[in-house]
Design goal:
heterodimer, A: 372 residues, 6-stranded antiparallel β-sheet, 6 strands, B: 251 residues, mainly alpha, globular
């Protein structure tokens, strides 16, 4: 069993405080429009016109509707003024939205000097409150169910998010290959997380090295495979949000994406093996290795599934749009899902390889004296 | 041979190396899951009710993930029932959140990919998003419930006279570790998913406020947070089922 030593001991009072501060934060973000530079308008009334049936060239039946929204400005110089703006939405809502009374919208002013309905464009919905609410709910649930035993998990998520942001900054400012930047980041991630889980100990070393070796091996193998097979069947063109060279960025994403699962796996095997060795010092290295492999193999399957479902489900909107645009299964699989599949395969290979690697390193190091 | 075929063969070899016959089973389970995920997308695209298609496929995917290639028995049944309950609770959270946040469909950042495509396809993208978020949390929920159910049934097997209160404490103890590990998996998965998007934001000088209101960013975060909530809820649900079964003398 893995041991998480919670440094902080906090009680119900703190949970109550988090609850209150969360409520405060949600209330605050409800009235935070003044903080935004961009004009925000609240929909005060909606006039909806009749549906117009639409049929596209693939015989998909949809409809479109025109709306007249009366919007009250909530911030800036034009506060409290009302404007009537036009909006058009479809049944599918692929890129448009149906707005309702009470919703808050970001507006774009085309010409700052002339505020008129013609000069105002609806840019999008204000979503910050819903996001803050969900974050708060998650934290609250962790605290209620685990009473701050789960605080280490939260700390680890936040620390890693900050590190990720720094790495993104470095990637944008410099022209270093993103694969190098994010490999360094991954090593730091692994070190920090291992220290958070095990503290300064031999277990940390084992988890650290097996994670780094497992991840590096899976990236190396997949890179070689893609080079040798000339990326056949993999469509890098459809990679989204690309602002730089695609292939290194793709591998950087795959590496970071699988890192958490690989760390968890190696931490699990390591802590179990050390625990077992503590109880039974007579076990040979080979026996320990086999035990580690047995533990790892039962975690491996579910873990691979977790990442697979995340990576594949993410392609869903594009998949459905593509299938409905007259494309065949095979072509859609190639265009939309091939990248997600490769990403899942890379992480799965990493996870599978980490089982024997961790078992080997842990069984070899169990017997050595604690290095401090 | 295509790159995917070669990588798939390497994965099979790696999984057998790691887990022998169990690894091979896990591999087949993965392929089955892929078929059902793709089928979900296909059935929604031809106009079937997204909700029911997702519900049926979600239950099949949970069955495969929990029963296929794992040791069967009490703990597998408990994990399956627990997962279904958690998924139902999570769905009742997903639906209002998605109505509120309105993150369905595509954003300006997708414009290049949408060029030349018909967007009036008659399928509600709100339903597609709901289906996507339900499917994406299944793996995490199943993993957590198997881990807790297995741990607790083992404890009961070793010590049948354990009191209910001690059992709750053991459950919470195991749960603590599950949450720690599951969070790493989920959040690094998220970081890997949004890395390219974050670089895009940074390069095009998005302000903090436009990031936290961005459709795709909020949608990805909702996906991860919902999975995290699913994992957390697994702990009390599984403990509850086990306590109930012990009371009724089924366990």
């Amino acid at each position: 069993m893995q041991k998480v030593y919670s440094i902080i001991k906090i009680k119900w009072l703190t949970i109550f405080l988090v609850f209150l501060s969360g409520l405060g934060l949600i209330l605050f973000s409800h009235y935070d429009s003044a903080l935004y530079q961009q004009p925000i308008g609240e929909v005060v009334s909606v006039k909806t016109e009749k549906k117009q049936a639409q049929v596209d060239q693939f015989q998909n039946k949809d409809y479109s509707v025109n709306q007249k929204l009366t919007v009250k400005i909530l911030n800036g110089k034009h506060k409290n003024q009302q404007y009537t703006l036009a909006n058009n939405y479809s049944k599918s809502n692929a890129t448009d939205l149906k707005y309702q009374k009470g919703q808050k919208l970001f507006l774009h002013v085309i010409n700052q000097d002339k505020w008129s309905p013609k000069n105002l464009m609806i840019q999008g919905l204000k979503r910050d409150i819903s996001l803050i609410f969900l974050i708060w709910l998650t934290i609250l649930l962790i605290l209620i169910v685990l009473k701050f035993k789960g605080s280490m998990a939260l700390i680890s998520v936040i620390v890693n998010a900050v590190l990720l942001y720094v790495a993104v900054k470095i990637d944008v400012i410099t022209s270093i290959n993103p694969l190098i930047i994010f490999s360094v980041l991954s090593v730091i991630f692994t070190g920090v997380t291992a220290l958070l889980i095990f503290g300064k100990s031999k277990e940390s070393m084992v988890a650290f090295f097996s994670t780094v070796i497992g991840t590096a091996l899976s990236i190396l193998i997949s890179y070689l495979v893609l080079r040798i097979t000339n990326d056949s069947g993999v469509n890098f063109e459809m990679m989204e949000y690309v602002t730089q060279d695609r292939v290194p960025l793709f591998f950087a994403c795959s590496m970071i994406g699988s890192l958490g699962a690989i760390m968890d796996l190696s931490a699990d095997i390591t802590s179990s093996l050390f625990e077992i060795f503590k109880d039974n010092q007579n076990l040979s290295t080979w026996q320990l290795f086999l035990t580690g492999r047995k533990i790892g193999s039962s975690i491996m399957g579910p873990l691979v599934n977790v990442l697979f479902l995340i990576f594949i489900a993410g392609t869903f909107p594009m998949l459905i749009l593509f299938l409905n645009n007259g494309n065949t299964w095979g072509y859609t699989l190639y265009m939309i899902m091939s990248l997600g599949i490769v990403q899942s395969l890379i992480s799965a290979i990493g996870i599978a390889l980490t089982v024997p690697i961790t078992s080997l390193i842990a069984s070899l190091l169990c017997e050595t004296k604690v290095i401090k | 041979m295509s790159s995917i075929t070669v990588l798939a063969i390497i994965l099979l070899a790696a999984m057998i190396l790691a887990g022998g016959i169990k690894g091979a089973y896990a591999y087949i389970g993965l392929i089955l899951n892929f078929i059902f995920v793709f089928a979900t997308g296909y059935l929604i695209s031809i106009g079937l009710s997204a909700f029911w298609v997702t519900m049926v496929n979600a239950i099949i995917i949970l069955l495969i993930t929990i029963y296929f290639g794992n040791d069967q028995g009490q703990h597998a049944d408990i994990s399956f029932i627990g997962s279904v309950i958690v998924v139902l609770i999570v769905i009742s959270l997903i639906i209002p959140i998605l109505h509120w946040a309105q993150v369905q469909g595509f954003s300006n950042e997708n414009n290049d990919d949408l060029e030349g495509m018909s967007l009036l396809i008659g399928v509600k993208f709100l339903h597609v998003s709901t289906s996507m978020i339900i499917l994406s949390c299944l793996g995490a929920v199943a993993e957590a419930s198997v881990a807790i159910a297995t741990g607790l049934t083992e404890i009961i097997e070793h010590n049948n006279s354990i009191t209910q209160k001690e059992l709750v404490n053991s459950g919470l103890h195991i749960g603590k570790e599950i949450v720690g590990t599951a969070f790493n998996t989920l959040f690094f998965g998220l970081y890997g998913e949004i890395l390219a998007l974050l670089i895009w934001f940074e390069r095009l000088h998005y302000s903090f406020s436009s990031v936290i209101n961005n459709k795709i960013f909020v949608s990805e975060l909702i996906m991860t947070l919902i999975s995290s909530i699913g994992v957390i809820l697994t702990i009390p649900v599984i403990i509850g089922i086990i306590l109930y079964r012990r009371k009724k003398d089924i366990l």
